[in-house]
Amino acid sequence: MIGALGTLLFFALTPVFANRAAHRLGSLHANCLRLVIAVVLLGAWSHLAGRGLGGGALGWFVFGGMVGFVGHLTVADGTIVTGLTMVSHSIHTGGVYSSGLPAEDGVKWRRTVAHLKRLDKLVSRVKALEGATGLAGAAGEDTDHAEKEAE
Fold first, then answer.
1. pLDDT digit string (tens) for the chain, length 151 residues
2. Which residues of 98-115 are buried (b: 16+ CB within 10 A; e: fewer)?
């Protein structure tokens, strides 16, 4: 809240001070001074908010284009989120995260998501049935091929 209030205050006062500084110092010197002040203020704020140089201020993450976030989330260091990904929960372990499916009707989309969430359990059940009936790989398919590629 304090950060938002400070941003509002500086944003509102910037044109006034910029105009006065440009008349007194010249536009080039005034813009350089504004840049130095911004760097100092942002550096101080990030140092304090990030608990110093040993804190979270030095963490890194990469977000692709059109990434969406739902709610107030935390993201672990070393996280890469590819484009068109919707992040709906905090990410506690760094790595590459991806998602993105074409738009669907709302009812159809919820049904698809429900099916996707049960997919691992369904694969396990199919493998158990194939093993029990002796039909594993009967169609000449390598059922573990996709899993090996995913790893």
1. 676 777 777 777 777 777 777 788 887 887 787 788 877 877 777 667 665 555 554 578 888 888 888 888 888 888 999 988 989 899 999 999 998 887 889 999 899 989 999 999 999 999 999 988 888 765 555 555 555 555 5
2. eeeeeeeeeeeeeeeeee
CA distance 19 to 27: 9
Q: Partners of 96 in the beta sheet?
A: 80
DSSP element (H, E) containing 18: helix 2-25
Q: How far apart, in whole angstroms, are the C-alpha atoms of residue 5 and residue 13? A: 12
Spacing of C-alpha 3 from chain mean position: 21
Phi and psi dihedrals of 131, rounded to 5? -65, -40
Q: Helix, strand or coil for residue 21? A: helix
Helices first, then strands: H and E counts in the chain:
5, 5
> In angstroms, rounded to a whole number, what is the distance separating the alpha carbons of residues 140 and 60?
46
The number of angstroms, rounded, from the C-alpha of 114 to the middle of its chain's C-alpha atoms is: 23
